[in-house]
Amino acid sequence: MINDLFSLSAWASGQNNIESLLENTLNSLEKIPNFKKTCFCIINKNELILQAGSKEIDLSHLFQIFQKAKPIKAIAEEAFILLPVFIKEQLVALIIIETQSSCDLEALDDFAKIFSNTLSRIHEKEELENSYRETLEQNRIKTELLATISHELRTPMANILGFSELLSIRDFNPVKQKEYQEEIYKSAQRLSNMINNFLDLARIEDQTGPALSSFQKSNICELIDKAWAAIKHINQDYQLKLESENEPVYAQVDAEAITRVFINLFSNAIKYAAESKEILCSIKNRRNNIEICVKDYGRGIDADELESIFKRFYRSEKAKNHTVPGTGLGLWICKEVIEAHQGRIWCESEVNSGSSFCFTLPIGN
Ligand code: ADP
């Protein structure tokens, strides 16, 4: 019956995506005499993901019946023919045909098989295309990362080499000497932060976690002091103001990893600063955790970027255009570390007024 109207194999090879498959199936089936209406749904893991054709028939209860059944053939029920489509014994679609008289159910089953093969082929093709796109994206990210690494390493390394060479070949007055030594220290610090971020990246990618080897009861204010001491040479004009409801504040953390979270947040606050040279770090007690916010009064972040900034390698166009040094790894690492502590990190920001990066940490016992 169906083969009289259209060649199934030729029909199947012409379908290249789900939308055209559905539309063509509806058109083809409706050509059959006595078929009034055809409707359709495609499901995935018990969820209806696509419905086409007449919306007048409530499909949900029919699905429940068919999901429990092992692959069965088309059945006729009152004025409807129910045509289940299975892929590897899983119900993936249901075609419902409203009919005025009996028809050849065997032929419809053949159609269901062809439909199932076509659907499966389309899924496989889409999976292949997705994995190809993913590979291209990974390659693009790797190429970009290599370019970023070489650029980001070259600048501080050139400073270290240049200033140390100057100091070794000439005698300078004590003021100049101190200035050059500080430049060397700043550049070495920048290299060290970057290398730590790359090491964290490798650990996270390896799935060995962001070095959360030792969760210990740690004094958070001490970690803040340590992080600030490590980076304040980047720009000595900045002031860190610490506000804490209680002191000392303890939390169950990997002290080294949390110190690096502070280092990343403080150095961003300095990098993306405007005129104000103040950074505020506040600690509040919540019921089962503490909430820490690092607030700056810098350039702020556009609302539509707030989601993306925590993504790996994300750098805003503004950061790139203003040639602010960076790799787009800092906030992603912060997120991985905080989430590995069962905490949450987020950002509130207003353009030209500043940003607050907040996170929670469990108090522990
Ligand atoms: P990087 O600073 O190396 O670019 P991050 O992951 O630390 O990478 O930050 C991602 C992006 O988020 C930055 O490129 C910048 O656009 C934005 N950003 C982060 N911190 C701040 C901040 N304190 N103020 C304004 N923008 C920020």
Order of helices and strands: HHHEEHEEEHHEHEEHEEHHEE
Task: Tell me the strand order in the biggest sheet.
Answer: 2-1-5-4-3
Question: Major beta sheet, specifics?
Answer: 5 strands, antiparallel
Low-confidence stretches: none
How far apart lie the N and C ends? Answer: 74 Å
- Provide the β-strand percentage band: 15-25%
Q: What hetero molecules are bound to the protein chains?
A: adenosine-5'-diphosphate
- Summing up helix and strand content along with how strands pair, one would put the structural category as alpha+beta
The overall strand count is: 12
Give the helix proportion (percent range): 40-55%
Mean pLDDT: 81
Radius of gyration: 31 Å
DSSP helical segment count: 10
Shape, principal axes of CA atoms: elongated
Please explain how this structure is put together.
This protein has 365 residues and is of the alpha+beta class. It contains ten helices and twelve strands. Strands 2-1-5-4-3 form a five-stranded antiparallel β-sheet, sandwiched between helices. A five-stranded mixed β-sheet has the order 7-9-10-12-11. β1 (35-44) and β2 form a beta hairpin. α7 (220-231) packs across α8 (255-271) and α8 packs antiparallel against α10. The N and C termini lie far apart (74 Å). The structure holds adenosine-5'-diphosphate.
Summarize the structure.
With 365 residues, this protein is an alpha+beta fold. It has helices at 2-5, 8-13, 18-30, 60-68, 105-169, 174-205, 220-231, 255-271, 317-321, 330-340, and strands at 35-44, 47-53, 75-77, 80-87, 90-99, 215-219, 239-244, 250-254, 278-285, 289-296, 345-350, 354-362. The chain is built from ten helices and twelve strands.
